Structure formats: structure tokens, C-alpha cells
Amino acid sequence: MERYTCKKYEWVKVDKTKCDGCGDCVTYCPRDVLRIDNQGFPFMAYRDDCWYCDVCTFMCQLDAIRLESVPYLIK
Amino acid sequence: MGVKQIDADVVIVGGGSAGTFAAIKAKTANPKARVVVMDKGPIETSGAIGRGMDALNVVSVPGYGTPEDVVEALTKVSEGILDQECAYTLGTEIYDRIKDLEEYTGREPGDLFPVDDNGNYKCNYLHPTKKALYLAMDGEEIKRALAREVRKLGCIVLDRTPAVKLFTTDGKVSGIFGFNIRTGEQYLINTPAVILTSGCVGKFGMPRDGYLSGIYEFPGNTGEGYALAYHAGAELINLECFQTNLLMKDFNGPSCGYVVIPRGGCGVNALGERYWTHGYWSGDMFLAVWREFAEGRGPIYLKLDHLPEETIQGLEKILWGTERTVRGQFHKQRDENYRRWDSVEQGLEEITLCSGHSMSGILINKNTETTVPGLFAAGDCASVPHQYLPGAFVFGAIAGKMAAEYAAKNKAPKLEADGNAIWKSVRAPLDLAEPGLPAELVEIKIRTKISQYLTPPKSDPLMQKMLWWTDRIRREDVPQIKVCDYHDLIKATEVQSIIDCAEMAARASLFRTESRWGLSHYRLAYPKVDPKWDGKYVVVKKNMSSGEMEVSAKDVPKYKWDYSTRLEYDYPEAKLNIGEGFTHPPNDTHDPWISEKLGVEGLDVPKRMR
Q1: In this complex, is the C-beta atom of B47 within 8 Å of any C-beta atom belonging to chain A?
Q2: From the candidates B211, B350, B443, B447, which should be mutated to test the interface with A, based on the most A CB atoms within 10 A?
Q3: What is d(CA B29, CA B23) in angstroms, rounded to the nearest whole number?
Q4: Looking at the whole model, is its pTM more than 0.90?
């Protein structure tokens, strides 16, 4: 069995019913945290560089991405 | 893909608050100049004000304060260790920058900044002086507006392309090298003028929550400006004055006292008692906080519950709507409510080197010139004590103008650097054979050591030990850093900048044989302010022949204004009596238990220990 690495623990959440994959959140993330996955949706490729600044939420015109929580260690 | 070679007139390292203003003013001063902005992120959202900002913490505007009042306030909070001309310049220039911000954002007086019944910008009290020098701001969009202006003017913007090497030829600036952290594209730029505006050393001490990016300052600010200036031979000052961040416990935003205190909030200890005399974020306040904890009255809180409901709701709107918008969510997740007196828990978090909120940085004069020809600096990496965001705007603007003028008179010296050889050395962590060390692990190591060995009160033996660690990590660990992509490659540079800054901070702290600036340089071996250090900088500089770090004292420029250079506080006096009952055994003592054990087992060390 493959070891479970918890890589999927992310606090930036994408609403796939709203996201059109425009990539604005990826373009404007000041910490270069986000990338587009092979289905065309953003994900936290560099999760632990996130400063939870909320720019992704702020720059999204479709209200499709949101910072659901501060990181676990901060919470 | 080869190294792209570019010629420029002015290169700006960091497109934050100071950097964008520098670019705008350089291009305005000389529209034909090739002005390049390099930034780790996109300039629309990068740096300390990427998500907005809610105040200008030190201004002089008609009806409230004069430039002399700014000099008085900064002389006092820096305890006299400042170039008063820089403070005066901040006071004289900030009004024009306020007007610039209204122009760039397209907003009227009274909208971006509040105005009073007389039509003056409406200031509040903040500093431990008798003048109102704090101006609130509804600045959610100012970074986007500044970035728009930079692009509109035709500056060359290299987003996600941090500078990693700065070159001089015959002691003058001649070029700079950077790479794109997504594509790996490399740029070698030949230029006569570089402006360092790359922010503070935000990633320095470890936050107590253990999250590497959970810091007060923007985590892209890792001290590259300090390190680039140092290796180019520039002088740096005040590196012994640590910003000992008093923050909302575990949350990386400010508490935010500067918004709350002018509106009636206050700080209290665990007994609900007020423990400070003023609300200004300075070393004496940090010392007061430290004492509350040391004497058992922590945690401490920012108290708001006595304020009218309308004020509390207004504060929630401001505090949760600008700068650190996750703050409201953080409170809710911790079941905190501003209507309870003990809701906003505060703590002394990670230490930082910063000019804007404190004093540490590259030595500049009022024209933003460093001690290296062609090298200018502004913002949080350039030492103008307590200049805050207004200083970034004012000195960024001056740096842009001065660098453009310098470039018009001075051709770029011949750049002798070999782009391919530089890239090979910069990308070494990519090419290193696996496994190597992850950059994050080395970062954790140096930052935990900084927290453990440098956090005030400062201990001489611990600071000496820090120097052992900087040497060891630099020698043994840095060459082992292994990364797998360009995004992580910049972290290898960041770690080296942090190590350089840690060494500078330790050496500067050991050199200043007194305590000053409250907790910021509370040195246990010298727990008093020593008048012999009045008016003296500690200067750190690289000896360009030997490569050694040199530390010396230097007079601050002669004061033009005779203002008080003292905050009122005393360092705690330790009165310790550890009691009696233990007598040290004589040196020739033979312990019968050890003798018996050796008699039975012999002197052989167990195999696993060999």
C-alpha cells in the first residue's frame, strides 16, 4: 500500500462548479503557491509557502476560490 | 536557453511599496531611461501591502504636524541613533506622496485618506510625543494602482524574477543577475544604477507556532537586499536593534494596536491591568511586555470591550477588511470576540530585522545613496528608523529620481561577469545529486538557531555560539541543499541571505557594549544605556580584500535639532539568591559508584559508541 502523505491537506479551496480555470489566482499569488492541475483547476502546489494573505480570493472574479481556514499550525 | 543579456539605466530590486515608487519616479525623471523592476512575485500583489494597507504611520500634514515634529518623534523613538536629515526629508516629502497616491488611485481627499472639517487630512496621535502624526487610509487597492502606473509608464517589469547576484567593477555598481522562479529564464543586466528595495529580513527568527511562513513580515522578504548590499561592500547599520514582534498570538498580522489604540483600545496583562504608558510599537513597549511574562502576568491582551458597539463594529470592518483579511476568520476559529476583554491574546513572536518598523538596514543618506557608488536603497531594507510605509514611498521616490540622474551622468561600467558561469553556480542545488538536504530543513535549522541564540535578552555566550552555527551551516549544510525546481531554487539563495543577516546581527550585537532600545538590544552583560554609545552607529561591512566581516563604530551625522533622545524606562535589575545547601566537592573526589563500575566493567567503551 502506498504511504499516505497528507499532500492533499489544503486550506485554499476551489469551487469547481464556478472556476473556469482562467488562472488569475495562479498569476497573482504573491508567493507562487498555486498551479493548475491536469483537470484545469488551481491547487496548492507549494502549500507551505502560503502566507494566507487572501489575494487568491480577492483577485478571483468568479468567487470560485477561497481561503477556507488559516493553516493548521496557526489555527 | 541561454542567459539573456540586457542593458539598463536603472534596475530596481523589489517591486513593493518603495520599488514601485522608485520605478515611477525614475521613469518620470527620464522617460528615455530603461528602467527595470525585478520582483519575486507579481508587482500587483507582492510585498508588504499586496492585500492593502490601512494607515500611514508617520506623516506631517498641515494643521497637525510639521517636518520638525517628525524629527522630534523619530529622534525619541530611535533614542538619537538616526540621521535627522532623513527624518526631516520624510516630513517634508510625504504630503506630495499622499497626493501621488490619490492621483494613481483616482480617489479624492476624504476617500483614500480622511479629512477634517477644515479640509486638512485628519491625523491621530500615535507617537510618544505631543503631535498627531498618524493618518488612516482606506488603501485596499493601492498596490494595484502603483503597479498599473509602473506598467503604464513603460518600465520593464520582470515578475517572479528575483535578483540573486549584484556586481561591482572598480567599486561601482555594474550589473545584476536574476532568474525566473517559474521558467528558469536568466537575466544578466549591465547597469550603472541599482536600487535595493527588497524589504526587510522577515524570515529571520522562527515563529512560535512553527509555521515557516507564519511571520509578521511578508515572507518573500528574506534579506536579499541586506546580503546583496553587504557583498557589494556597502555599510549596514543598526543590525543590533532587533524588531521583537509584539503580535496577535499565532496570527501573523499585527494586533493591530495602531488602529485600535487611537480609538480607545489599550493593552492589558492577564490581571486586566494596563501595563504600558504609550501605545507606540517600540523597544520599550516590548520590554514592558517581556517583563509582564517574566513576572507571571502574561498572557497579555489588546482590550476593546469597553468601546461602544459601533466602534467595535467599525474596527472589525477595518481590521478584517484590509491588509490581513484572514484576521476575522482566525478570531472566529478560536472563538475570540472583541466584546470580551481577553479576546485578542498577544505575544512576543519571531525576531526580525527591519528598518520600517524598527531601525536595521543599509546605511543611506537623505538622497538614498549607499556607500557604494551607483547603489541606492529605500524602504524596509534601508535604515531610516521607524519610517514605516510613508518612508518607503518617500525614499523610494527619491531613489528613483536620484538613480535616474546618476545613470544620465555615469555609463554602466564594463561588466566582467560570465553569465553562464554565474548560472551554473546559482543552479548548483538543482544539479546536485540526490538525496541532498531539502532547503526547508536548512531554513528551519538556521531560523530556530536564530530564535534560540539571538532573541533578546541577549546573552554573550549564546551570540558567540550563533557565530559557530552560521559558520557550520554555511560550510556543511548550504552546499548540500538539493531542490527539484526553479520555485524552490530561490530558497537556496534565501537561506544564504538569512545566514548572512544572522552573522551580521550577532556581530553587531556583540560590538555594542550597552543596552538600548528597550528589549530590542537588551544585553544581559551590559544591562544599562551607556552614554558613550549616544550618537554612535555600529557599522557592519565586508572587507572586500579579505572577504571578512568587519564591525566598527561611527558617529551619526551631527544633530540639527535638539530634541530628547530618551524614552523613559529602566532595565530590570535581577536580584537572585539561589539559596544554600550545595557544596561543590573537591577536585580530587573519587565517586565510589563510578570506581566500582569501572572495576567490574573495565574501561572499554561500548561498541556502538566507537
Answers
A1: yes
A2: B211
A3: 10
A4: yes
